[in-house]
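Lab manual, section 2.4: Encoding a predicted structure.

Procedure: take the sequence of the chain (729 residues), apply the prediction step described in section 2.3, and record the output as structure tokens. A sample record is shown.
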Amino acid sequence: MAIRNPRLPLLPGYGTNPMIGKKSFGVRPIFTSIDKVNMLVDKPEGINRVPSLYCRKQAPDLPTWIMFDKNILRFKAFFQQSLHEMRSGNHILRKVDIFFFLEDGTIKVVEPKTENSGLSQGTMISRQRIRLPFSYDTYFDVLDLNIGREVTFFGKVFKIVNCDNFTRVFLNRLGINVPDPIPWPDAIERTPDNRGEPKHRPFKQFLDFDRQVLRFYGYWDDRDATFGTLHHLEIHYFLADDTMEIKEVLPPNSGMEAGPMFLKRMRLPRKIPSHVEMTGGPKVASYSPADLSIGAVVNVFGRKVVLTDCDAFTKEYYRVTYGFDAFTPLPLPKDEGSECISTSVADRQLPPWNGYGSYDDSAENCRTVEPKAPHRDFIKFLNKDRIGFDSHILRFAARLINDNPEDSRRYFIIKYFLCDDTIGIFELGERNSGFKGGKFFRRDKMYLPDVNFFVPNEPAAYTDKDMWVGNELVINKHRFRLIAADEYALRYMEIHATEYPMANIALIMDKIRRVLVSQENGYKNFVAKYMDAVVPNKKELMSVRCFKQALKEIMCEKMTEHEFLTLIRHFCGDPGKEKSPRREMIRSLVFTELTRGLWDDRERLREGLLHADAGGAGALPAARLRQLLRAHRLPLSTDLMDCMLQVLEKDDKCNIQYEDLMQFLDFQTRPVFSLTEDDYMKVVRHAPPVKDVECKLWADAETLIREGYVNWNAFLCQLNLEHLVKEQT
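Recorded output:
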């Protein structure tokens, strides 16, 4: 900018400054793309495409507001504030937190709030870029903040003494050495005082113990007096000023009117003061926390109040201060006079159900004259209602069990709705079967058989714990047998295995383990008998049929169909088919999550796997592999990662071959395989001729039982009974 000549008038044409007279100083917005990220820059293409905060050609590939978003450096510091006209000290130390925002280089200073400090605390310097002292174009940067340095913000000198772990790691990666934390100096530099022992300062006690109250429970037995009764009391002791207050607790509908307070807040003397003491004599000693404990008797102006219990804060206070550990509450004396007078409201006995409407609806109409809708379990509805693709509906395939041979061919779908514990039954009709199909029983609560319905309280109904493959349900005098379940129901029960024992693989393996241990040479004979039943090409695999027969011989009737289904799903093996429906379905879900999370770092993952496999075995344990996947930030949920690890190839020691994992994640040379309708019908070719789509899911399970394989070595490895063979040998 040229300097204006003062001898020339400030008129157009007499000056060389082109900015004179200009009103709009906006910059034309220029959009560009850096590494496929659209951003707004203030300079045209070719001049300087990087932000002006960094040196030319030294800025990161991505803009700072993307790379360092929500990355904040935090430092602990203090500054000293001078105290004028105070004999207690020369200055006071004030502790602050300094936040440095990496995305734009701004700084924020906050002083943590302290109750009853008498100071205006909180945000001391709002978020902004701060200039260096005696500079107009240079601002504080990362290099200016470190432990041991003093920084000046707007005339205040802050001494940095510590930082958090993220800040230390970030600065170390930049090559900046971060010293050890510096201890805090004394809060107040006090002048030497030689005036003898310090005086009692009540205000200091108030600051230390404000809002700290000891709470005791007790009683005052006044039954010896005329019309006397047993008074239940609550005693509060205020540590801030050593005062006490007592209020009486009256049960509801007792017929007594409580006063405002049994004893107003005051210092309670240990003995009743005399007339001389009340009119100017020495002060009477009052109760202190050392005089109060469970079982102590407090003299409240002639009334003997017995302390029977206290709250949790009081117990912790006496445990820390006096070292007490025994806080056994005392029993209350029985009030014989009040036993005949019931102070509690008895539960209302409803009349028996008359058969109209539901139990909840009839009970609500009996409780009030005004008709009201029954209250639902809103918390359960909120947690178990449909959430996205999570329907919270368990679907099971069922058959009708009776003496009619025509009913044995009928196919039913039973849906259990977790949000309100209702069951709906639908029939899948077949052509020329004589049955139309459709809704068989409407959605409602299904009660257990042989119960009395015409009772005041609602009888027991079927719950989700009764829904497992192999169980029989008697619904409205129709007996259904659950023969299969869809993938969502099986997976939901496996995820929530603590709630469903039939899907808990740990409980199932423990049951098998106990049976084999109880039999003499049971495990040895079990392994020797089925050693030759494995697949010749891959000896770690065994057919599902042979596996089921082996379990039936040792378990007899102790294992249900659902437990067996959980086992073959957990130890599922593949005899060489590269594209199984379950593997490709999980692979498509993994591809969706990785694409959504913008993850494409296979080469670095391969380097991490090779580094973890020091022996070059080509396989890693599942726990170690899961840890490596977490370290390389794969955007997969825990459940999806467990499913992926289950379908990967394993060796004889149940370790996962990580080369199969790399092929599983190779979506460029090996794209995701999608099942067509024809391919899916080939998978379910052994299914019954039913048109409904849901039947394909259960037909897939039937195909798995007929043609599937289990990993026999993985089953024996998790059984972990090899020590029995050595002992028996």
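Check your result against the sample. Confidence is low (pLDDT under 50) at residues 47-57, 673-700.
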